[in-house]
Write a structure and sequence with these properties.
Elements lengths: L9 H26 L5 H33 L1 H14 L1 H16 L7 E4 L2 E8 L3 E6 L2 E6 H7 L2 E4 L2 E2 L2 E8 L7 H9 L11 E4 L5 E7 L6 H10 L2 E3 L6 E3 L8
Antiparallel strand pairs: 1-2, 1-5, 2-3, 3-4, 5-11, 6-7, 7-9, 7-10, 8-9
């Protein structure tokens, strides 16, 4: 059997890790670079979501490539090793792959309000094997396989639980610009710094789209008042829209 397969060297494995790592780093850097581009905010989000989907697809693909190269170095011995590793990690591996599937096929992202069964809360983070959902009872980890198999609903809109999107503009010429505004946000005690504030310049260059996570949803009026004291006006927010991405299915 070994004679039928190409023989690779450890240097080939190093090259595979290097190349796949550089491509992954490029995708990650592309998302950071996108934040600094002066383009329409909606277009920036579309591009950002596209890069996130590409990266979610690329991650398991890169691992498969590295695994195949590793096996081909010594097909008999290394295939036994890989088989043992996959068998021992089958359960978390299924969670990981389910997570990649959901990231590619849905709009899951931190800050969205999610309804899962009888629970409703805000997505705090998308982890490797599940997402952290902040509910009224506290934070809990929900596995991606459960989400995929049992179904969930996403609330889509300009405001979700402790996450808020505000369109702000200078009320007068003395109001601070982008750099000073970012510095002021850094000193704001209302913000939950598990999610860094996102600030996008509007196309007309007269204001910003601000996305923040507040430590408590009740802090919103005080936060809005603070922005006004800093010299900014806040545009009215549209009512949120709800869309069901997965329907509940019986087990």
């Amino acid at each position: 059997m070994e004679q039928l397969l190409p023989s690779l060297l450890w240097s080939d494995l190093f090259k595979a890790v290097l190349v796949t790592g550089l491509v992954y780093a490029g995708l990650s850097f592309g998302r950071l670079l996108l934040q600094g581009l002066r383009i329409n905010d909606s277009r920036k989000r579309v591009l950002g979501n596209g890069l996130a989907r590409i990266r979610a697809f690329y991650e398991p693909l890169a691992l498969i490539v590295i695994g195949v190269v590793f096996v081909l170095i010594n097909p008999l011995m290394h295939s036994l090793i890989m088989g043992s590793v996959v068998a021992m990690s089958w359960s978390p591996l299924r969670e990981y792959l389910s997570g990649r599937f959901l990231r590619i096929t849905t709009e899951l992202r931190p800050g969205q309000e999610l309804i899962f069964g009888q629970e409703e809360g805000t997505i705090r983070s998308l982890d490797t094997f599940g997402l952290q959902l902040q509910t009224a009872a506290g934070s809990r980890l929900i596995g991606y396989r459960r989400l995929k198999n049992e179904g969930f609903t996403l609330q889509q809109g300009s405001r979700t639980s402790g996450f808020h999107e505000l369109q702000i503009a200078r009320a007068d010429a003395d109001a601070a610009g982008t750099e000073r505004l970012e510095h002021r946000l850094f000193t704001c005690t209302y913000l939950d710094w598990r999610h860094q504030p996102e600030l996008f310049a509007l196309p007309d260059q007269r204001g910003w789209q601000l996305r923040v996570l507040l430590r408590c949803g009740d802090h919103l009026p005080a936060f809005r008042q603070l922005l006004e004291e800093w010299g900014y006006t806040i545009a009215p927010q549209a009512a949120p829209r709800t869309s069901s991405l997965f329907q509940d299915r019986p087990n």
